[in-house]
Amino acid sequence: xYNFAAGPAxxxxxxxxxxxxxxxxxxxTGLSILELPFTGEEYRSIVERxxxxxxxxxxxxxxxxxxxxxxxxxAHFALLAMNLLGRRQGADYAVTGHWSRRACNExxxxxxxxxxxxxxxxxxxxxxxxxxxxxxxxxxxCHITTNETANGIQYHxxxxxxxxxxxxxxxxxxxxxxxGIRDFAMVYASAQKNVGTAGLTIVVVREELLxxxxxxTPAVFDYTRQADSVNGVNTPPTFAxxxxxxxxxxxxxxxxxxxxxxxxxxxxxxxxxxxxxSALYHCPVRPDDRSRVNVCFxxxxxxxxxxxxxxxxxxGLLNLAGHGAAGGIRVSLYNAMPGEGVERLLDFMxxxxxxxxxxx
Length: 360
Ligand SMILES: *Cc1c(COP(=O)(O)O)cnc(C)c1O
Known about the structure:
The chain has helices spanning about 15-25, 40-60, 70-85, 100-105, 225-230, 240-255, 255-275, 300-315, 340-355; strands at about 1-5, 65-70, 90-95, 110-120, 140-145, 145-150, 155, 165-170, 185-190, 200-205, 295, 315-320, 330. The protein is an alpha/beta fold. The strands form 4 sheets. The chain has a 7-stranded mixed β-sheet with strand order 2-10-9-8-5-3-4, sandwiched between helices. A two-stranded parallel ribbon has the order 1-12. Strands 6-7 form a two-stranded antiparallel ribbon. Helix 2 crosses helix 6. The two termini are about 30 Å apart. About 45% of the residues are buried. Bound molecules: pyridoxal-5'-phosphate. Pyridoxal-5'-phosphate (PLP) binds near residues 72, 73, 99, 171 and 172.
């Protein structure tokens, strides 16, 4: 079985086996990983290792903090506005698909949110070209969604925001490619797409953005308080952090972000080539803005799409239905998807086209 779900998503078999062991007996202590007190030595060593591995993967400079929080990216759409707007009261948002639109709508309740660029009127065909962006130099921050999970759209360049801090929801492409972290003042991601299980939100934030939280910000979601606290403000999602730590180590062993980027580029190119060479499959996203992690496409009719999904299921290729907002088919190619899964899918798609492409 190969699970192409957008999230919670497939995890490496090796990591699941390690986690199974740790559920019963963590490193010979006789305690389950679930039972370790979060303030104890053992658990602290797990968090420190996870943090060090993530720092190494991102080549993170000293002035960036890593926070392991709860709530999910959707909660942080509001929380980041509470934490970062400060006295400026205004921020710029780029609306490029389902998730950035939600991010924008949540932030609206806390300040004056401007749309710096939008492709909504055209039905989200890609990232608005640079010349259409209207950035405000007084904005507290500029927010983008580096990969639109529902729409299959990804940034392959970054807006030049000058002095304005760039903030990015990286939930679906976190650790799938190299990034220059200095380009961003803050990046955040729910863990269940690429780096673990639901319940954990990773926030990477530059020191200079701290200290601006609105007074109404809950203590456990105040980035500054969490960054300053040694023992943590509240109980963190201990198992989810442990699991992400295993993923970071797994990724480093394979060659880190160089390995991940190279692999996802090659895989997605093969899929897009098959789609573009086909008379049956159609990808609505402009070629320059296509996602390397969520490949979205359509078939000519809903009936053919249902047949495609049923056939895929029979072939052991699961959860390929598109997001409700976009429909069609979506292939999620996160780091943990084995090469064999991609080969099987490519074979299935070619075979399906041979049988249905002639317009029967
Ligand atoms: C899945 C997803 C979210 C929402 O994550 P939750 O954990 O459900 O809050 C937000 N942004 C992007 C880009 C996503 O892919």
